[in-house]
Specification:
The protein is an alpha/beta fold and 511 residues long. 35% of the residues lie in helices and 20% in strands. The structure holds 6-O-phosphono-beta-D-glucopyranose (BG6).
């Protein structure tokens, strides 16, 4: 097996080769396991990156045999893998898949699972190393953790290391996130807890650190002296699809802002870390979240906007209103769009607004971070300008799609009379690299196997992000209910979102 460094491991390659282990997946019959986890593990097998004798023990309520589950797994991998099945690789991969059944908080089911785990560990000589993966609805997290604690107390823990991957959402507010952290910490040390935010597994998100800290030219201008403002947009053209009942209890703020967008903000605004490792990077990220100025209730109306989509047209297709989607109750007040203007009370960013927005059923799918720079100190070219104002220099980091980075600057149009126009220096991943990027889940699972938590969120980060969101939610709940829907599907959100940024004399970027 070729030893590979973990994504950001500073350790020598030989130290970071993953150990044999058993991954125990709770939620084996769920969508996440079918669409993401098994295909990711299979693709790692295809690249020969998995540790020797890696075993996958899947657990769910359905009574399957190993054989029946392997068949099911194959169908799902065939359907969702980014590369086709290679029969030889599949056979050896599938030989390491096992199944056990039971309820998530059911002691009997867990006893059966533990017995099976022992057998698998002995048969495959995995040294007792265990990676538990909670790919289950959040309401079942604590029940599973308690059962893992019970097994540990009975001496049924592995002899090797035990780590746990917890899927999002991590809590629905600060109190529930704290409760979950307490439950997890009663069984696992924080260093062994891997909270997933799949945005951190995206290549382009990891590249924010490389772009900022491996290049000498960025840091000197990455601050309040040169940056006018920053915009982070995560727009989706899809609606809530079949996830209406989950989404309705969540909304855009909890579903996207608390986690993915706060992570993007942290990476863009953080100070250089002492080293690229889990501790140093997350120490700096959490400082950003702690620097966010918290809203008072009466500030929320001016600094935020929210909305819900009505019927409309997206990409040539007529789509229903949010409240007509499956699983969504009529009269729902859940927001499918949210925008915030935040300030960071830090030396680097004092006075620089960060505008954040996300929504469903917007005109296109696009995730972008745009750093807009202040104008040149003196306007020498008034007569050259076609538009009434000079366009600012903007550095845009396209997270997805058309992954890349571009820098917009003004340039002289050839010939006379003299005129200027914006042009762009553009870096496109697709044009520069031929290799297909691994999926976020491949990266994250591999990192967890190698014990590298850099791309996972720490308990203090999660709680800091909830602290910010709670102030927004509190402000919203103190305001009179909105007349919803307030934006048409296929448009860029409610008018209030435009007003939010236009009050500051700025505009949302056209994506
Ligand atoms: C998930 C949200 O975390 O992220 C979804 O629950 C959202 O509502 C998804 O659609 C977006 O992820 P991506 O990778 O498609 O941008």
């Amino acid at each position: 097996m070729t030893a590979q460094a973990s994504t950001f491991a500073a350790a020598p390659v030989s130290d970071s080769a993953p150990h044999p282990c058993t991954i125990v997946i709770f939620g084996a019959s769920g969508d996440l396991t079918a669409r993401m986890l098994l295909p990711a593990l299979y693709n790692l097998a295809l690249d020969r990156r998995l540790p020797p004798r890696l075993s996958i023990l899947c657990y769910a309520r359905t009574k399957w045999t190993d054989e029946a589950f392997r068949e099911e797994a194959r169908k799902n991998v065939e359907k969702h893998s980014r590369r086709p099945i290679d029969p030889d690789v599949w056979d050896s991969f599938a030989a390491g898949i096992f199944y056990s059944y039971g309820g998530y908080d059911d002691p009997e089911g867990h006893d059966r699972l533990n017995e099976r785990l022992r057998e698998v560990e002995a048969e495959r000589d995995t040294g007792g190393n265990r990676l538990y993966y909670l790919a289950v609805p959040p309401t079942t997290f604590i029940g599973i953790i308690e059962q893992l604690g019970r097994a540990q107390a009975q001496g049924k823990g592995g002899e090797g290391w035990s780590r746990v991957i917890v899927e999002k959402p991590f809590g629905v507010d600060l109190a529930s996130a704290r409760e979950l952290n307490r439950a997890v910490h009663s069984v696992f040390d924080e260093d062994d807890v891997y909270r997933i935010d799949h945005y951190l597994g995206k290549e382009t998100v990891q590249n924010i650190l490389v772009f900022r800290f491996a290049n000498g030219i960025m840091e000197p201008i990455w601050n309040r002296r040169y940056v006018d403002h920053v915009q982070i947009t995560v727009s989706e053209s899809l609606g809530v699809g079949s996830r209406g009942s989950y989404y309705n209890g969540s909304g855009a703020l909890r579903d996207m802002l608390q986690n993915h967008i706060m992570q993007l903000l942290s990476l863009v605004a953080m100070e250089p870390p002492l080293a690229i490792d889990g501790r140093s990077v997350r120490n700096e990220k959490v400082k950003v979240l702690n620097a966010v100025r918290l809203f008072e209730d009466d500030e929320v109306a001016m600094a935020t906007a929210r909305g819900q989509y009505g019927p409309g047209w997206v990409a040539g297709e007529e789509v229903p209103a949010y409240h007509e989607e499956e699983g969504v109750p009529g009269g729902s007040q859940t927001e499918t769009f949210a925008a915030l203007r935040l300030f960071l009370d830090s030396w680097r960013w004092a006075g620089v607004p960060f505008y954040l927005r996300t929504g469903k059923r917007l005109p296109k799918r696009s995730t972008e971070i745009a750093v807009s720079f202040k104008p040149a100190p003196q306007l020498l070219f008034h007569d050259f300008v076609e538009k009434p104002h000079l366009e600012p220099n903007v550095l845009s980091i396209r997270i997805q799609p058309n992954e890349g980075i571009s820098l917009k600057f003004l340039t002289k149009v050839p010939g006379s009379p003299p005129r200027m126009r914006p042009a762009a220096m553009d870096f496109l991943y697709g044009a520069s690299f031929v290799a297909q990027a691994p999926s976020a889940y491949e990266t994250l699972i591999m990192d967890a196997l190698q014990g590298d938590a850099t791309l996972f969120t720490r308990s203090d980060e999660v709680e800091a992000a909830w602290t910010i969101m709670e102030r927004v939610l509190s402000g919203w709940s103190s305001m009179p209910p909105l007349e919803l829907p307030n934006y048409e599907a296929g448009t860029w959100g409610p008018a209030a979102a435009d007003e939010l940024i236009e009050r500051d004399g700025r505009q949302w970027r056209r994506l």
